[in-house]
Amino acid sequence: MSNKSAVMEVMSRQRGKLLGRVAMGALPFPVLTKIFGSQAWAEGLFLGIFAGLLDQWIMLTGIRVTQSYYVSPGKGLLRFKLFTLLRLINATAFIFLVIRLKDLTGGLVMGFLLIHIIFIVVLITLTRRKDGVKKGE
User: Fold this and answer.
1) Rg of the chain over all Cα atoms, to the nearest angstrom
2) 50, 114 in Cβ contact below 8 A?
3) Which residue from 69, 77, 86, 128 has the fewest beta carbons nearer than 10 Å?
4) Does 84 or 6 have the greater pLDDT score?
5) pLDDT tens digit string along 47-64?
6) Could you tell me which residues come within 8 angstroms of residue 1 by beta carbon, excluding any fewer than 6 positions away?
7) Which residue has the higher pLDDT, 134 or 39?
8) How many other C-beta atoms can be found within 10 angstroms of the C-beta atom of residue 91?
9) Is the pLDDT of residue 89 over 90?
10) What's the angle, vertex CA 13, arms to CA 50 and CA 8, rounded to 5?
11) Contacts of 7 (CB under 8 A, 6+ apart)
């Protein structure tokens, strides 16, 4: 199985597992920030993580839905454009949230970036496990 098809299978079929692992990987950061840091940063991290998870959920749902249209690519392209529009709306709302909540800006941006970094790490881990790649190869 090629690496590209393994990534697509993990992203479409294991969507819940993927997002769950990403959320659990990011959860300690706002908690530890609240305990040892500032309240504003913890709230910003939590909101940024939530916005990032919403963005990833839209992306993974779009991949799963558009994969079912491989027979009629025209309909699949329309669905893909719809989910791209939804992601654009989500990104616009996130930008307005960052502008509106000036005290939480640092945490919002860091939470959003953190969730995407964790997503990439989890996706690589699940894909390698799916391909049967052993540790150290």
Assistant:
1) 17
2) no
3) 77
4) 84
5) 899 999 999 888 888 888
6) 130, 131
7) 39
8) 13
9) yes
10) 90
11) 123, 127
The angle, 0 to 180 degrees and rounded to 10, between the axes of the packed helices 105-131 and 73-100 is 150
Evaluate whether 97 touches 111 at the Cβ level (below 8 Å): no
Structure tokens at 19: 């997002």
| CA atoms of 46 and 120, how far apart (whole Å) | 19
Q: Which residue has the higher pLDDT, 11 or 61?
A: 61
Could you identify the residue written with the tokens 């150290």?
Answer: 136
Structure tokens at 50: 């939530």
Matching residue, tokens 């697509």: 8
Percent of the chain, pLDDT > 90? 9
Q: Taking 60 as the threshold, does the pLDDT of residue 4 lie above it? A: no
Cβ–Cβ < 8 Å for 41, 49:
no
Distances (CA, A) of 27 to 72, 89, 116, 125, 134: 40, 25, 13, 19, 28
- Residue in the structure block whose two tokens are 């997503």: 119
Per the structure block, which two tokens stand in for 120? 């990439």
Indicate the residue type of 6: A
